[in-house]
Amino acid sequence: MKTQYETRYASSPQTVKAYDTKQLRDEFLIDNLMQEDQLVLVYTHYDRYIAGSAVPVKAPITLETIDPLKANYFLERREIGIINVGGDGIVEVNGDVYELTLKDALYIGSGNENVVFKSIDKTNPAKFYINSAPAHKNYPTKKVSKADANKIELGSLETANHRTVNQQIIGGIVDTCQLQMGMTELKTGSVWNTMPAHVHDRRMEVYYYLDIPQDQAVCHFMGQPQETRHIWMQNHQAVISPPWSIHSGSGTSNYTFIWGMAGENLDYGDMDVAKITELR
Hints:
Elements: E1 2-8, H1 13-16, H2 21-28, E2 29-30, E3 38-44, E4 50-54, E5 61-62, E6 78-84, E7 89-93, E8 96-100, E9 105-108, E10 115-119, E11 128-134, E12 142-144, E13 150-154, E14 163-169, E15 180-186, E16 192-193, E17 198-199, E18 203-210, E19 218-224, E20 227-233, E21 237-241, E22 248-251, E23 256-263, E24 272-273
Parallel strand pairs: 1-3
Antiparallel strand pairs: 2-21, 3-4, 4-11, 5-10, 6-9, 6-11, 7-8, 7-10, 9-12, 13-14, 14-15, 15-23, 16-22, 17-24, 18-21, 18-23, 19-20, 19-22
């Protein structure tokens, strides 16, 4: 097992206006996730957020600390959310076993020293998508299956954005310091997510796209509402969204995405909506 990580630094909206396609992708796209027998982590200076993955095949994967954390173990001063997007898997937390089937979530609070990822069937391995944020206190570990999620129906087929929002790691379901995670599934015939677009200046966000059919793609939109940019994305890729940026997308087919966010605000509905007709 090998741990690989990289650091991404924050960029101002004025700087990003001048980025070309390669610079945008280098700064915001996470395109190396779901590598077998690897713990892959991207540490971003937007709210000190970490996004990553663990795919245990030949052996279990231990959640190891990384140098930027300056911590004795990964969750010494952090909390973590995990959603399984592969075969059945197990996450062991200080010896306690949590079984996660497809699209089940697990929240683990700070202070848990030993976290291990395992697949039940190595021919159909678990694929654990990971988000983590700094934490000031410990909250209990809790599993939230997809069936247990708070479900919100939004949009319509007429506007090509009929979707189900599955709130999993969020207030009212799980107590957290600042981390929130959930999953939005678009209905057949719908392709737009998070439209009307919005920004929320008191927290950042990461989108992770999955269930994109082979030979299809999603065009993710970012930037200030009057200075938008786009990044073309494939299955199992993620994108970092700064607090000043919209985060929306349109696919060549329907798909699913996992949203994760952190910041000083836990109010899910706190956002500044950008009118569709005013986007540039």
